[in-house]
Amino acid sequence: MKTRAAVAFEKAKPLEIVELDLEGPKEGEVLVEIKATGICHTDDFTLSGRDPEGLFPAVLGHEGAGVVVDVGPGVKSVKKGDHVIPLYTPECRECPSCLSRKTNLCTAIRTTQGQGVMPDGTSRFSYKGKMVHHYMGTSTFSNYTVLPEIAVAKIREDAPFDKVCYIGCGVTTGIGAVINTAKVEPGSTAIVFGLGGIGLNVIQGLRLVGADMIIGVDINNEKKAWGERFGMTHFVNPNEIGEDLVPYLINMTKRGADQIGGADYTFDCTGNVDVMRAALESAHRGWGQSIIIGVAGAGEEIRTRPFQLVTGRVWKGTAFGGARGRTDVPKIVDWYMEGKIQIDPMITHTLPLERINEGFDLMHAGKSIRTVVIY
Question: Using CA atoms, how far apart are residues 177 and 337, in angstroms rounded to an integer?
């Protein structure tokens, strides 16, 4: 069949809207009509050429929602007509990682996913007879895409595609980092570095679990109002405080008889390795946890003095907010539909596929929280 797609033919070049050939689903695969897809910083990171796993040509996109239109042999968990969200972190429920219950990082199709192909080692996409790579196992920048059955989460049918597509990455990553990875307790103090789409979802996750002091850190003062909208209690612009950021934040978080200072939990949502260090060193001595969510460039390294860890701080990373996709994503969709979390305000722009490159421009200019492409 044919499908319209935005294809990354080369790194650091605009996406091209072309008609691709798409082979139907094979054993254990499903064909999904993507109704809406978000434009995420991770897509931009790969397009820039800084992603060590980046492959070209490829159909990018990993934050989508749509409808199952066909299934291959052996598929049992979804059927034609089901509404689904593609999962770049699948959940097979059978591999050692899934069975351990210690991680959400399913390994069932990790190798082929990183190679830009389906589990059988081939691509379903082609252009003028030449292979086009899949991306993160999802490729939601195509109107139709083929995914492994274990990489789709079935969701309720009354949820709007143009909003819940954001749960395919940004919402789940931010809220999940709070609930699943950090396991933040009510009354905690927290600092969130970077108030983009991920950071705002971390903030609303902190509000959801009852955190007390929620400090947002960003160099863009326009993010202050955004943070407050989702539950932030204090805002810090590092360029305007007149002193080093870490001691400033430690002083801010001194409270009661505890005059040591530092937050119970800190979250890096920037991908900047210097900010990651500041986040760790702003955590409370003895028990502070710092969660790395942002993705750094190829070859970059984090550093701190070992004494920071010896004295009880913990550095942790998280992928997809520690969520098990097929199990947890439908619950988060329910939270949205029940009004427990907000998504609508964060969808600042909607565009047709033909204008998808404008969405990247809006991201670069800091004018959007999330741009959604509607097919």
Answer: 21
